[in-house]
Write a structure and sequence with these properties.
Blueprint lengths: L1 H31 L4 H23 L49 H8 L10 H8 L41 H10 L4 H5 L3 H11 L4 H5 L1 H9 L5 H6 L1
């Protein structure tokens, strides 16, 4: 209660001092500097407000109540670590004493050595080794021939007969490029193709690189008809 009363009286005193200062400044400016009344009052009012706030803040701060300030107890001193106690290492176990060898020979030792003599164990030769020695070596593999066993080269011609080559393009599946390849292999006429066997077809098929073309398009059947002077459905359309 006393603290609040003292603060209030201090504030009143500060504002009174500020009012006197502002009034003195206003009167002085109007008398000495020939200021107008309004100008002097305004300047005095500004000084009054600023001085009152400043004096109240500086002189009228409330003091802390007794007992409100607490003092922190001092921090406890850090405990020192206990000194490390080093224990002496236990002595190493004593090495076992070497076995005592008797200085005098035992009874029957000499007789046992005589019976043993210079006999040695010799293992019998393994029968598997003998069997391997008697086994003949594998025969060397036969070298592969240029032609497969199921292929046979047909009879070919070095050039077409006197009448000129047949138009092999009348066979279904034979175009200009394939006809040229057949000529290079030595086939110019329908009767040559009509006489091919299965082994000869396999030989030609391998060279043409068209697997199954001869059987699929029926070259042999078409060649037989064309060699006899007939026409097939495909050759009729080509003409």
């Amino acid at each position: 209660m006393d603290n609040k009363t003292g603060s209030l009286s201090c504030a009143i005193t500060c504002w009174l001092v500020a009012a006197l200062g502002g009034a003195a400044l206003a009167i002085g400016l109007m008398v000495v500097a020939d200021w107008l009344f309004i100008q002097g009052v305004f300047a005095g009012g500004v000084v009054f407000v600023v001085a009152g706030l400043l004096l109240s803040w500086l002189l009228c701060k409330p003091l802390p109540a007794p007992g409100s300030v607490t003092i922190a107890p001092p921090a406890p001193a850090a405990e020192k670590p206990a000194p490390e106690v080093k224990t002496a290492a236990a002595p190493a176990a004593a090495a076992p004493a070497p076995a005592v060898k008797p200085s005098t020979p035992l009874a029957g030792e000499a007789e046992l050595a005589e019976r043993k003599g210079a006999w040695k164990y010799e293992a019998e030769a393994a029968p598997a080794a003998e069997a391997m020695a008697e086994t003949p070596a594998d025969p060397e593999p036969e070298t592969a021939t240029d032609e497969a066993a199921d292929e046979k080269k047909p009879e070919t011609l070095a050039a077409p007969r006197d009448g000129g080559p047949d138009d092999l393009k009348l066979l279904k599946g034979v175009g200009p490029k394939l006809e040229e390849t057949l000529h290079e292999l030595g086939f110019y006429h329908f009767d040559q193709i009509a006489a091919w066997t299965d082994a000869e077809v396999a030989w030609v098929d391998t060279r043409l690189k068209f697997k199954g073309r001869i059987e699929r398009d029926g070259w042999i059947e078409q060649a037989k008809i064309l060699a006899d002077g007939g026409e097939t459905e495909f050759s009729a359309r080509k003409k």
